[in-house]
Amino acid sequence: MSPVHFIAIPLFAAFLIPLAGKVSKELVKIIPGLVLLYLSFVSVTLFPIGTHHPVVEIIAGFKPPFGITLYYGAIAAFLTTLITLIGFVIWLYSYKFIIREPIEKYYMLFMMLITGSTGIVLTGDIFNLFVFFEITSIAAYSLTAFLRDRDGAEAAFKYLLIGSFASTFFLLAIAIIYANVHTLNLADIAVKIQDVPVTTRLFVLILFLIGLGIESEMFPLNGWAPDAYSQAPSPVGAVFGGIVVKAAVYSLMRIIFLMFNSHDVLHFLLVMGIITMLIAEMSAMKQQQIKRMLAFSSIGQMGLVIIAFGIGTEPSVRAAMFQMFNHALIKSLLFFSAGYLVFHSGSKKISALDGLGHDKPITSFFFAFGALAIIGLPPFSGFWSKLYILLSIADAGLMVPVVLILISSIIEAVYYLRVVSRLYFYKEEATDVRRTPVSGLIAMGILTVVILLVGFYPNLILNWMTPAAADLLNKASYIKFGLF
Amino acid sequence: MIYYATSILLILIGMYAVLVKKNLIKIVIGLSIVDNGIHLLLIAIGYVKDGTAPIFSKPGLQASQMVDPVPQALVLTAIVIGLAVTAVALSLIIRLYDHHKTLNINKIRKLKW
Q1: SS3 of residue A386 by DSSP
Q2: DSSP designation for B65
Q3: ipTM confidence score
Q4: pLDDT in tens, B5-48
Q5: Which of A66, A111, A295, B72 is the most buried (most CB within 10 A)?
Q6: B67 lies in which domain range?
Q7: How many domains does chain B have?
Q8: Is residue A305 a contact partner of residue A323, using CB atoms and an 8 Å limit?
Q9: How far is B38 from chain A (nearest CA, A)?
């Protein structure tokens, strides 16, 4: 087995699905599940190997730095496992949630998103990274407009405009790098970029920050996120928050740590992370729609992750990865339960959720569970990652970010508990006879169990984070393995 | 040098169109112009004056006389990506027009930025 499976198989499945649609509609629904189950199996088997020693896969027989390579190190192992497992849970949820035609287009684009995200995580070539970014973005634009309504098309167009504008910056950065160092291999660039003049490097850094910052939801480039998250179908919101953003943040951090690893750049990241977090949390506070609120909360959480990466020490990077893991799980759970809450209440408004806790106790329970977990209350997993981030920042001797993170946690608690209290402490209005399907409940149940398990035994995950953090921070070993 | 100047001019013209124009189709045309500017820039980076194709077709041909094939391969890929983005954008515009009966971006904005 090799890491190529992560890219080849979902891509193949994506193009197989329309053909399968000619045979039977059930087949269209089952194929993505089988693919993701297989990929989860591959990622779990490869995980110990990649964590122990990076696997570098050469494509088409050209030796690095000339050919395209896949770099399957500790961090790629962790992220592909996360992507495939979350992807599987999202498929489980979509199974009964996506009942609108065209189903085959939904699953096709979903498979393309998985291909693109795993590709972003695995690739060792900067132009290849650009291509996978575009695969992910184009699938994401189309999925945003999946519901064919007016706002969906508008959100998708806005997303497309910002996204493709960003990708031109990314391509420009690649062009300038290639003009200066004449290579596209990330490890090779990391070696040769040291000789490039500082002004050129700064210009390239700015282009990268714009190009990748948009998918990473960094302030002020995240204007697309609330619209796209709230207009897309709920499982797609979970895909954006759980998979796409994680891959994008990873690629941004990989590029920064490989090419521009200096204190000033990390400080800049820290400041941007703080601004992102504060503005997003305050915007979430005044949202009237539940999915927009979740979208802003997602931006805020990514701000927290960027802060932790910006500290740049080994414990903080480890905590950032742990937070990424927790956020992927918890935000998916929240989007899943919010999807059915919106479905049952018939409105996206928070005020329409009054008393749903009595009518739909299980779905509401999952939402409340997710809300408490993301605020960071013990014994949920969100508590540990937030604690470790705070500890690592305090260790670095910076007190201002600690205070700001705590303040934003309070804001977070306010707006989440406001929704939870509406669910439980308001009077019930009407009852909805439709029930939440079993596949959706299983998907939410799996996430709940994992969140609790990691909450009680954080070391289960944290032990795997140590090699991953080392992989991201240790430039020398990346260069050594990436170039042989 | 003229190639670099032209490509940067194209990028700027495209950006102007994206940022200033109000018509959705003109915005998409602007995006394509930016793309083309970057493609030209990439080709210019690999260009060698009086260079030949990167094939050792004649004896005595030096590698330094050949144009760099890598940017050309990149541009081919980038053109395909640009085509896909343009296609998605235009199909979204068709849907927006169906709903709003206008292409003016100021009249469409319902969602908050």
Answers
A1: helix
A2: G
A3: 0.92
A4: 999 999 999 999 988 988 899 999 999 999 999 999 999 988 88
A5: A295
A6: 2-108
A7: 1
A8: yes
A9: 6
